[in-house]
Amino acid sequence: METESLYTIIVHSENFAGILNQVAAVFTRLQVNIESLNVSASSLPNVHKFTICCRTTEKNIDKIIKQIVKKLDVISAACYTDRDIFSSEIAMYKISTHVFDGSDDLNVILRKYNTRVVEVTSDYIVVELAGSSDEITALRDEFQNLGCIRQFVRSGKIAVTASNIEKVSEWLDRREKVRTERSRIL
């Protein structure tokens, strides 16, 4: 039996309605759960970037990439492990202040994780943490153990590759050369 690993897939596409649905359908067909998903504009004009995390086998990840690349509006899709990317998440914690009355415990915890305080009231504090998935989970666990979490939310992973050039740049360069050649012919 093949072992499962955590993979981060970065997909670049043109911004057309329905592309997210098409990409998600690939995972559904192969019965692979998406652990996190982030979609945003990329650094390239008119190109969107999907950062998708999933836990699956090497065999499945190859199938997923091949099927995503076949989608009409997809420019590129590539798979990475954590050693190939720089990544981060963001989380917000709304915690009760009464648990910390007269104690320095809260300040110690907030400094330990290098958090940012967003809002302070007499009833609650909203804290923000940008960091690794493990750091975000560890802080949530500390607050849960203290019984002070009122709300918790986290983003999907965002990532940039560790390589000097983004693979989609090569595709865009080729596309531009084709457009230039076509315009000279016409």
The assigned CATH architecture of the largest domain is: 2-Layer Sandwich
Tally of separate helices: 5
Q: Overall 3D geometry?
A: elongated
- H and E order: EHEEHEEHEEHEEH
Give me the Rg, rounded.
Answer: 21 Å
Given the helix and strand composition, which structural class is it? alpha+beta
Helix content: 25-40%
- Beta fraction: 35-45%
Uncertain runs = none
The number of strands is 9
Question: Averaged pLDDT, please?
Answer: 86
CATH superfamily of the largest domain: ACT domain
**How many structural domains are formed by the residues?**
2
Describe the structure.
By secondary structure, the chain is α+β, with helices and mostly antiparallel strands. The protein has five helices and nine strands. The protein has two domains: 5-80, ACT domain (Alpha-Beta Plaits), CATH 3.30.70; 86-154, 2-Layer Sandwich (Alpha-Beta Plaits), CATH 3.30.70. Helices cover 34% and strands 38% of the residues. The strands form two sheets. Strands 5, 6, 7, 8 and 9 form a five-stranded antiparallel β-sheet that branches. The chain has a four-stranded antiparallel β-sheet with strand order 2-3-1-4, sandwiched between helices. The longest helix has 19 residues, at 167-185. The termini are far apart. The mean pLDDT is 86.
